[in-house]
Amino acid sequence: MKESLPLQVEDGELALLTDLYQLTMTQAYWKEEMHEWATFSLFFRKMPPTRRFMLACGQQHAAELLSRLRFGDEALSRLADTGQFDQGFLDWLGNWRFEGDIWTLPEGTPVFANEPLLEVDAPIAQAQLLESLVMNLVQLETVLASKAVRLVLAAQGRPVVDFGMRRMHGVDAAVRGVRAYRSAGLAGTSNVLGGLRHDLAINGTMAHSYILAHDDETEAFRAFARHYPGTTLLVDTHDTLEGVRKVIEIMREEPEVDVKSIRLDSGDLGKLAKGARALLDEAGHDDITIVASSGLDEHKIAALLEDGAPIDAFGVGTQMGVAADAPVIDLSYKLVEYAGTPRVKHSPGKINLPCRKQLYRRQDESGRYIGDIIALRDEEIDAGEPLLRQLVQGGRLDEKAMALAEDARERVTDALDRFPESVRRLAEGESDYPVELSPELERLQSKT
Amino acid sequence: MKESLPLQVEDGELALLTDLYQLTMTQAYWKEEMHEWATFSLFFRKMPPTRRFMLACGQQHAAELLSRLRFGDEALSRLADTGQFDQGFLDWLGNWRFEGDIWTLPEGTPVFANEPLLEVDAPIAQAQLLESLVMNLVQLETVLASKAVRLVLAAQGRPVVDFGMRRMHGVDAAVRGVRAYRSAGLAGTSNVLGGLRHDLAINGTMAHSYILAHDDETEAFRAFARHYPGTTLLVDTHDTLEGVRKVIEIMREEPEVDVKSIRLDSGDLGKLAKGARALLDEAGHDDITIVASSGLDEHKIAALLEDGAPIDAFGVGTQMGVAADAPVIDLSYKLVEYAGTPRVKHSPGKINLPCRKQLYRRQDESGRYIGDIIALRDEEIDAGEPLLRQLVQGGRLDEKAMALAEDARERVTDALDRFPESVRRLAEGESDYPVELSPELERLQSKT
Asked: Is the pTM value of this prediction over 0.90?
């Protein structure tokens, strides 16, 4: 029946969501009695060309999950079936608990290339085992939040609502994506389970099929508005401005009908919004708002507003749901220290920063960010508060530090205001925000 | 604790993975006593510019899940909390069972724009409720399989292995993606849970961190090869050809060491593969194969092979894991018939095909495909076997029809051979494969 319930990943199975080599390498460390502590650092080397910053999201969440990771009996017996693992090692895996430390940036921290999002210090066999899963978990939320925040910036304070559930990559992306959207500042989601689970307002309008299932549009509008006072009516099924006229006519005939908004979902949205606004205002309905959807992204929203389109809220799906212009980021989870010594892979043309690290974001007197410094973790630096916090210590989650995840949305809004405008700009190109290495890290890097 | 176990979607919760308007529209149908049967059709309007065909995958799987969909008590109580639903409706939802029919293409059917992948016939309140979930489920597998099959085509018979788990969008994408990869013809996956669950060979090599955790590369190679006879050694941590020389030296010193392959993961893969091949052959190791990975996609694989790179197998991750060049497809699930009459939204410039449909793929005498015909479901057409099969009848899954999912991989290979070369070509552009409407559908479409 496993094949029939493929959307469930039980707690004891989650540890198998990894690349085989993590398990074979871990068995090798176990056989070789390599128990020294290692540090792995999670970062990305290059900003996607369509991004000027990424929002680090999911890393606190991942740390929490990792601190609870277990190999269930069923998982161990499936591993035994592969024939690649000794019974002694499988017994050891059965008792496996993460006993190390995890440092993370708070959820919703804007980050740039080469900055650590998360670091793990643990016996190497523990730290290695987390690699594939931590990357999968952090990438999803980071990629989605980094796209969504651009929609929020483009809408200049107007609400942006997620309509993307049907376009997202599977069930987990759709549910956990809403957590990323909340951090990024979306006003709501159409996704019921995602919204319930991650505490984001759940919004909904109506679909063309509802209109088409009725014999005429006016009848459909009338019925829906009666069922749902304060609703949003979808006016473009046949002819958008005709649809608006029908809504106005219904309200004239039945003044008790309560319509809050109309939604435009096709055609020239800017032109139709202007036409609809004029009709509504003329009929005395300047309180009825206009929601637009249909293939929107940050550039289309910016262009509509630039052109003065009287749109009050945006519904976005396809482009945001998979972060279509940057659906993947080259996160790395690299060994940077083992047994107290720096370790770095030699990669021509690539920066690999050794050792345990810390990140600082310098501010001027008025609180504006003037540059980041990547430093060694224990280095003394006069650059304000360190950003990486210890979330898991000796395998135990620090609930107080975890609470920082709750404030992600406020953190994002506050942080974005403090960056230079070139970081917030939507157009392709790099910002002029400086990210530097500390003197100690600089010295160590040129040495290794 | 719900927020703490966010990777689980319980069976009774899955029905909440939908857009709010599906539930409000369904309640409206319930209130209005609209119980007539409707047909919804799942299709996409436009091929992504980087695709010449899509592989329809996940639709049988989705049909199976949908036929078992239930609203659990917890789900109903969460819905009640939203204040938008009457108790009578919630009771009705508690007894909700899908009682309609679902027709699908077999898993792994190549499809083109406007062709139905799946059709649902059911009382409208049942058919409407499935929309968002069926789109989410089918899109994931279709998008991933349609990318993966291009890698398989590019590799011209050489094995292609999925290394992408860490780059995929969350847990469900990573697990269910392997099902799509199996259908598309990948030879294996590094993803343990995905491979176990969806019966694809699980492969693994080693990571740079294993080399770096040892004091020297030779020592690391030696240890790993002893643990895993027949293994693949990663040779590029410091210097690729030096790494190959070390492998050769180890085998000279310890002839019992059994190395099956080496893996190249950085640099100029073509040049390094030639250099490595020459060194291995010179040392009498022409049986040791070369695996290449690192940012590969179908175009890079094709270019490497065109240039004669002696690479025997490919590991692919990032680009394939999110189908980066076409991460989303504009699937539509449209009402096409209600209460026995055709229903179509008027969309300037868009084709909307009314009514229940069937798809035919015409063959010439030698079995080559010469064109598709989209027809009405009950139309008499002399064009061979109909492709859509009834998988769910009166709410019950037909296990025999479901078994067709097992043969997806063979179906894909067989089908691709029968299409004209312009369908298989990797370069951007449209194929010349014709898709036509049947006479009846043509007439009905121009009428509506």
From this structure: yes
